[in-house]
Amino acid sequence: MLIALIIGLVYSCQEINKPIINGSVNDTIIDFRFSPPIKLDSMSVQYRIRNEIFNWPEYTAFTDGFESLTKLNPEGNLVFIEELELKLKTLSKSRFPKKLDLPDIKSRLKVVQTMLMQSRYHSKNKNWKELDVSLQNLYLSYNSFINRIKSINEEINLFGDEINLSSSNK
Length: 170
Hints:
Blueprint: H1 2-12, H2 45-50, H3 57-69, H4 78-93, H5 103-124, H6 128-159, H7 161-168
Helix pairs in contact: 3-4, 4-5, 5-6
């Protein structure tokens, strides 16, 4: 029994050498630089109030979340992209202000949704180069959405209700 105890101690005190496994290159963004985010177009609070957008909480939550996304490290933005997707779904199901309840606005919002899904895919799979391109396209589609809202408001301010009547007859 004493011999078994000594043999057990000898074997348990030996150092176990495990092979070191090199981490996958996809685990980090080694040697990849993301492009600086495109400057996002925005609307001031005064503009939102003047054009009856201020009382649209789903829009405000979405744009605030979107502006936060551009300030994050793209390597760790998956959670924020997924949260933004939820805000976008809420926005698309919300009640749009009457003058913005148009196919032009909703179709641009769909493009933003598609770009968000693409960005989520690349972020999840750690395809950094593709994520960089997807994020730039996402920012462009967001700007297109915002700029269309602005242009519709400008048309309404210039032409009044005539523009609403002509677009609702289509």
